[in-house]
């Protein structure tokens, strides 16, 4: 049910609805304010219209925020500046207010989106930390079968990287067909760096996170992302390696 709600929230229908509202609501607002021109100042009207920009930006859709800012500026000109109901402005002060309305709307939109990104990033870091701590707790408490710990870590690596799946392959012989994710968060393939930020995780081959204990290779966590392209940040990739490292002590303790 939760996944369905998230899918609907990010659906094209929802985006179209938000963008349509961003275009229409400033129009309706200006039409209503036109009936109170003698009671409401231009500055007050502009501030009311900025609220629609904030509401559109709160949806996380940059286009909706820009549409709300432009729609507010256009209909402010049409309904609330002389000559009325024409797309012209005769008063220099009204020109200034209109320009500021659009400019402030765009800036407010970007600030709101930046705040959402920071909040999402903070929530992500908290989730990564919880994953590392839970794996470390299993190791420190002892008594956890290595197979259980491996399954837990594999699921957490999948979540952190946004990948399709992750499995563990034991053995010292590393499969050279895999791309490698190292402790610096870099992925190499055939000795060449992969630009994950631009191209995402390799989808045409698997990515290995080598599990070592000192100089000894104990196995690989093999990450698959064949059905969709994932774009984990460098921080996420380093967390995935840290998670894999939690398994090393348990494997060598048997």
Would you summarize the structure shown here?
The protein has 254 residues and is an alpha+beta fold. Helices cover 60% and strands 12% of the residues.
What topology does this entry show?
Blueprint: H1 2-9, H2 12-33, H3 42-58, H4 62-80, H5 92-141, H6 146-161, E1 165-170, E2 179-181, E3 187-189, E4 192-193, H7 196-199, E5 207-213, E6 216-224, H8 234-245, H9 248-252
Parallel strand pairs: 2-5
Antiparallel strand pairs: 1-6, 2-3, 3-4, 5-6
Describe this structure in words.
With 254 residues, the chain is an alpha+beta fold. It has two domains: 2-119, no CATH class; 143-252, Beta-Lactamase (2-Layer Sandwich), CATH 3.30.450. It is 60% helix and 12% strand. It has helices at residues 2-9, 12-33, 42-58, 62-80, 92-141, 146-161, 196-199, 234-245, 248-252; strands spanning 165-170, 179-181, 187-189, 192-193, 207-213, 216-224. A six-stranded mixed sheet has the order 1-6-5-2-3-4. α3 runs parallel beside α5 and α6 (146-161) runs antiparallel to α8 (234-245). It is rod-shaped. It starts with a helix and ends with a helix.
Core attributes:
alpha+beta; Beta-Lactamase; 2 domains; six-stranded mixed beta sheet; 9 helices; 60% helix; 12% strand; disordered N terminus
Along the chain, the helix and strand elements come as: HHHHHHEEEEHEEHH
Poorly predicted spans: 1-10
Q: Structural class per helix/strand content?
A: alpha+beta
Gyration radius, rounded:
27 Å
How many separate structural domains? Answer: 2
The order of strands across the largest sheet is 1-6-5-2-3-4
The percent range for helix content is 55-70%
User: What share of the residues does DSSP label as strand, in percent?
Assistant: 5-15%
Task: State the distance separating the first and last CA atoms.
Answer: 41 Å
Give the tally of β-strands.
Answer: 6
Mean pLDDT: 78
Number of helices: 9
The best one-word shape is: rod-shaped
The biggest beta sheet is recorded as: 6 strands, mixed
């Amino acid at each position: 049910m939760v996944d369905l709600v998230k899918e609907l929230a990010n659906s094209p229908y929802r985006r179209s609805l938000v963008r349509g509202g961003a275009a229409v609501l400033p129009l309706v607002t200006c039409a209503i304010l036109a009936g109170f021109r003698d009671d409401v100042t231009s500055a007050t009207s502009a501030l009311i219209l900025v609220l629609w920009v904030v509401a559109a930006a709160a949806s996380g859709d940059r286009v909706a925020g820009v549409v709300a800012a432009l729609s507010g500026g256009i209909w402010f000109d049409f309904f609330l500046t002389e000559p009325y109901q024409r797309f012209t402005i005769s008063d220099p002060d009204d020109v200034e207010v209109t320009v500021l309305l659009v400019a402030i709307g765009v800036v407010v939109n970007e600030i709101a989106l930046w705040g959402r990104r920071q909040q999402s990033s903070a929530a992500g870091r908290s989730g990564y930390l919880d994953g590392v701590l839970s794996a470390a707790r299993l190791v420190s408490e002892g008594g956890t079968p290595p197979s259980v710990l491996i399954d837990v870590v594999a699921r957490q690596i999948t979540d952190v990287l946004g990948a399709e799946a992750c499995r563990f392959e034991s053995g010292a012989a590393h499969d050279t067909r895999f791309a490698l994710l190292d402790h610096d968060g870099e992925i190499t393939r055939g000795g060449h760096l992969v630009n994950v930020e631009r191209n995402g995780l390799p989808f045409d081959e698997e990515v290995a996170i080598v599990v070592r204990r000192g100089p000894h290779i104990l196995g690989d966590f093999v990450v698959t992302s064949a059905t969709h392209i994932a774009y984990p940040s460098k921080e996420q990739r380093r967390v995935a390696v840290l998670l894999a490292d939690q398994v090393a002590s348990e494997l060598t303790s048997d």
